[in-house]
User: What shape does this take?
Amino acid sequence: MKLILSYVFVILVSFGFVGIFLDKNLEKNSLRNIETSLINQAKLIENQIFPESIRKEDAPYLEKLARVSSLKTKCRITIIDTRGKVLADSEKSQEDMENHLNRPEVQAALKGGIGSDTRYSSTLKIDMLYVALPLKDKNTTIGVLRLALTLEGVQKTLLAIRKTVLLGLLFALGFAFVLGSVLASRATRPINKMIQVSRKFSEGDFSRRIIQSSQDEIGELAVTLNKMAQDIENKIKEIENQSQKLAAIFNSMIEGVIVIDKSGRIISMNPTIEKIFGVSKGDVEGAVFLEAIRNNDIAEVIDAVLKKGNSLSVEITLIYPIRKIFEVSAVPIFDSGAIAGCLVAIHDITEIRKLETVRKDFVANVSHELKTPLTSIKGFVETLLEGALDDKENNRNFLKIIQEHAERLNSLVEDLLSLSHLESKEVALDKKNFNLRQQLEGIISGFKSQLKKKNIEIKNELPSGISVSADRGRIEQVFTNLIDNATKFNKENGAIRVYAEELNGKIKVFVEDSGIGIPEKDIPRIFERFYRVDKARSRELGGTGLGLSIVKHIVELHGGMVGVESIEGFGSKFWFILPRA
Assistant: This one.
């Protein structure tokens, strides 16, 4: 519509200027031509007026001359003296005429020039053109000859021209409207298509393309929009791929990650945080950190980073819901040089600290276990060297004690080597199908002397047809260690019971004793290396503290599990699971 109206407006303004110009020029030229014609006619009539008739005011002659000349020239003719008195007029009698001295054309003629004027005649009730020439006698003005012509014909001509111009204007406006509509339609049709496709772009559908074959600016615009859509589509795909990668990394990170804005509100978090603190991402996003996760230590870290803009890393201990140790690292996020938030990474280092503790305990225990027999051996060797070697009554006893401590050291080293070999996961198991009950019978026979000393009864309640697929030698070591512990830590006249049960295609074997039992606080650590419930008694009984750790590693190498159930003072029940043959 703007294009159409612009065409119409241009035509309207153009025709308006042309019409006004033509009207003014035609009117001016017409008046000039009529004026020239009247002057020429007046000069012809001037020659027929005798000066004497003016001086004597010969009204009959002058009136006759005026009427005759008026008929020939089709003009109104008036003869006026120098005082403005009308001497003759072709239209009215002398008596009916007023003084014409103040008429502009008469004033101009009396001054010796040719006067002209166009005005409304109150006598004839019409616009008139007046032309006045001076009547002279020997260069002396004696009167004025005035010719007047109605402008009715001129006005009719101008009206006709104006009508023609107006009709032309109306036709031009109609043609401009039609032409503007066609041109505007041709211009706006591709633009409308671009608008429709652009709406699809704004809705995120960049698969559409604008088809425009013209080589003009609109065609260039279509090419530009298509290229822009392709570029945006490629960028969005690239961003989506990066976003998916980042989301996959973010969600699969072992570390917990929280993104905080500058006001301390949670923007996002990964599933690890949900597991650590037992919260739901949908419930806490947008909430202030301390309202969502009630941990003052982490909140203080976030507050410090947001205020100072420096990275910060601290170690905190979480008591509830379970005791864990975390390393909390927070780094600021900047936007245009200003702090826009911070990224908090929470790394669970509980196992690392636990392993460090185990390592320290292991070193301390190994040192202690080696130091005790070595100190004894060293002491007795020094005693022998200082002269006890010649003491026939005690030297053999000293040597037996040295031998016992040497055997203890040897046993400790063998257990350490065995455990190290098992932990390396490089053990090649020689798996075979064998009868577990028969194997247990052979192992029990090797413990007869120990069982007899404490009067302990052992029952083999394994089914006669029970078979497993395992490394026979390793399973023998498992049974040996468990029965050895059950014997050492049992009561006088106690009992040991070995039995099994089916468990989803596997066999769960129990070694139950009626011994002293294990305190509840020690049960979680019973399978650790060198861990002893009663350290003094364990050493007295010759234990190295590695037996149960060896049991655990052997069973796990077979893809099984180990465990213990115990009540202090009422005995213990150790169990392990093996695949059935």
About this structure: The CA atoms of residues 512 and 573 lie 4 Å apart. The mean pLDDT is 82. The first helix runs from residue 2 to 46. The longest strand covers residues 126-137.
